[in-house]
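**User:**
Make up any protein.

**Assistant:**
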Amino acid sequence: MRKIISFMHISLDGFVAGPNGEMDWIKIDQELFEYVGQRINKGNTALYGRVTYRMMENYWPAAGASPTATKHDIEHSRWYSKVHKVVLSKTIENTGLPHTTIICDHLPDKINEIKQQPGEDILLFGSPTATHSLIQQDLIDGYWLFVNPIILGQGIPLFTGIKDKVKLKLLPTTRQFTNGVTELNYTVDRP
């Protein structure tokens, strides 16, 4: 069965965005782009919340064709155009969106159906609200976190609304990047 892996940049004190959704504190450079790109390019399904999906749709379909496109822009744009996108939204209508499935209700059933399909792990990109919904329904199987060397003090937390303890197992793929970001990979340790 496929797993849902939450891919997030996070502050040292556990926030994924500032109080107003700011992400200008996230450290991204070519080394990080290349490393993340290697794993992302193996995947064939991306999971987004409505806000993150709209942001991606406004940029990635045309990013690779821009005269100022970087190597990362070209590669990620190519990947984005062919990856199957699953979007959690009660307001977006699925009217012929290419390679896109909209989930607006029956979240556990529909997510579990997708997990049963063949393919690689499903990467949940950003999307704090969608992540919170999936956490509350115990549908996330792992966390691929990039801890940025900053303490925000306030903002949108990664973990909220958790009723019971969630045990995690750290995978041995921890890595520190030259920009100070540390990668942590956890799987949810279910009995």
The mean pLDDT is 92. The chain has one domain: 4-50+85-188. The radius of gyration is 16 Å.
